[in-house]
Structure formats: structure tokens, C-alpha cells
Amino acid sequence: MNGYITRVADEIADLLLREGIDYVQSKAVFRAARIKAGLHAPKETRNTPARLTLEEQLRFIDAAYARNGRTGLMVQTLLETGVRASEFVALRVEDVSLGERTIAVESGKGGKRREIPFRAELARLLAMHIGNRRAGPLFLSRQKARGGARTYTRQRIGQMVREVARDAGIAKRIYPHLLRHTMATRLLALGMHITDIQKFLGHEDIGATRIYAETSVAMLRRKFDRVTDPAGSDLLGAVRTRHGDVVGAFAADILTADRHPFNTPADA
User: Fold this and answer.
1) d(Cα 61, Cα 77) in Å, to the nearest integer?
2) Interval 126-158: pLDDT, tens
3) Residue 108: is its pLDDT beyond 80?
4) How far is CA 237 from CA 7, 232, 245, in A?
5) CB proximity list for 26: less than 8 A, separation 6 or greater
6) For residue 241, is pLDDT > 90?
7) Which of 91, 142, 139 is nearest to 116 (CA)?
8) Beta-ladder partners of 137
9) DSSP labels for 22-90?
10) pLDDT of res. 29
11) Taking CA atoms, which of 9, 37, 57, 187 is between 20 and 30 Å from 210?
12) Domains of the chain, each with CATH number or no CATH
């Protein structure tokens, strides 16, 4: 095959030189030739994004809190806000509005600013974590980076996620962006509109978000949860027994949330 391609390429090169066709003209020639020959680019296929299953989410959060409360809150914030690792390490105390339950990402991809809502339970945990602080990095690193700043790096966050996944016994490759995929799929399953998920994730192109809508598993899970309330209750009881109240509350939010995933009884 390689010899055949080389021979044809030589013949085409001789033709281009003989006709005096430059680079820009050659692109038009090849485009016209493909059309005349009936050649078309193969349809692009996009794989379903990797994500954590419900059971893996519970084990993952449980393993993070088992390390210490700080690691647990960092991992929970990373998962529930769906922020990119680069956005996460840039978060500051002043970006968090506990009253409005939003986190402002000031410099997202493409320099775009967006506000991300979060649950009341996460707001309570963040309030205890922030305390009386009014400014500075949301999560202070114990190690000083270059220049004396106590901020995390994307590499350290990736390492932390991998370590927690290992502790949780999750065999698949886990990385910060996979948590973002997990949250997007979860929001879709809870009934959030695809355009709202686009805003939540900060996607400029809806096509980058639509891949989650192509996953029928999310919609099937939503329908399944509606018709298996007793089974869901049994699962929650088992989760609380095995993993404790923190993970049990997290599981309850996943399984019992209404169509709007950020509503609480007080909000209704």
C-alpha cells in the first residue's frame, strides 16, 4: 500500500509542477477532484464521555473524606461545580457568594466569566471552610509555590484525584475533567435543559455540550428513578450504613432531586 501511495503522490506532484499550480490552487483542485470522484469525509463519531457511575461517585466522595475533611470538600466542590482544574485552582474566597449560592469563574476558557450555582449543603460546608476570611485562595495549599503563593497547581489537583480514586478502588482512569463529565451527565439526568448545562459548563459551542444529550443512559436513569422509589430508599439506607451520613446525604441528593437539581424545600 505504501508503494502505491508513493507512486500516485509522485504522479500528482509531477502534474502540479507541470501545470504550475500553487498551494492554494492545489487545495481547490483536490476538492473538485474528490467531488467528481464521489469521495466524502467519513462521518465523525464521538464516543460517550467517560464518567463515574453513581456507585463510583459515592465511593469516590467517601474515600476523599476518609483522607481528611479538606480533601473531601475540595473533591466535592470540584465534582459538584463541574469546573475545569485550571478554573478550580484559580478560585478565590471573594468569588463565592454563600447567600446566592454561586461561584464566579472569572477567567474561564476563552477569558469568559460565568457564575455557577451550587447546592445548599455545599454552601454550608464552604461557609465552615471559609470562616472569617474575606479574600485569598478558596483552598490554600500547605506548600508554597513559586513566589511564595500558597495555591494549588493543576498537576497537584490531578494527582489528588488519582490518589482518591485509588483509595476508592476505582479501576478506570480518573482525572479532573472526568468529574466534569460526570456532573454534566448528572444534570442532564435530573432534567436540566441542554442550553443551561452549556452555560453551567462554560461551553462556547453547544456542540461540545450536546454529546451528553446523546447518552440515552442519563434519560433512562431518570425514568428508572421515578419508578423505583422503594428500591431507591433501600439503596440510600445501605449507603448510609456502609459509608456514613455525609455520603448518604450526597446519595440522597442524587437520587431524589427534582427536575431542577439546585432546588431545596426552602427554595420551592
Assistant:
1) 10
2) 999 999 999 999 999 877 656 556 788 999 999
3) no
4) 69, 9, 10
5) 16
6) no
7) 91
8) 92
9) -HHHHHHHHHHHHHHHT--PPPP--PPPP---HHHHHHHHHHHHHH-HHHHHHHHHHHHH---HHHHHT
10) 84
11) 57
12) 2-37 (no CATH), 54-256 (1.10.443.10)
Predicted confidence at residue 245, as pLDDT, reads 63
Question: What's the pTM?
Answer: 0.63
CB-CB contact of 241 with 109 (8 Å): no
Separation in Å, CA 136 to CA 16, 66, 151, 220: 62, 26, 9, 43
Between 95 and 200, residue with greater pLDDT: 95
DSSP assignment of the chain, as one string?
-HHHHHHHHHHHHHHHHHHT--HHHHHHHHHHHHHHHT--PPPP--PPPP---HHHHHHHHHHHHHH-HHHHHHHHHHHHH---HHHHHT-BGGGEETTTTEEEESS-GGG--EEEE--HHHHHHHHHHHTT--SSBSS--SS--GGG-----HHHHHHHHHHHHHHTT--S---HHHHHHHHHHHHHHTT--HHHHHHHHT-SSHHHHHHHHT-HHHHHHHHHHHH-HHHHHHHHHHHHHHH-HHHHHHHHHHHH--SSTT--TTT-
Q: Quick one: which of 47, 46, 50, 48 has its CA closest to 179?
A: 50
User: What span, in angstroms and rounded, lies between the C-alpha atoms of 156 and 211?
Assistant: 29
Mean pLDDT confidence for 221-239: 61
Query: What's the grid cell of residue 33?
Result: 477532484
- Residue 114 forms beta bridges with which residues? 105
Cell matching residue 222: 431518570
pLDDT at res. 249 = 65
For residue 237 the three cell numbers come to 439506607
Q: Which residue has the higher pLDDT, 261 or 106?
A: 106
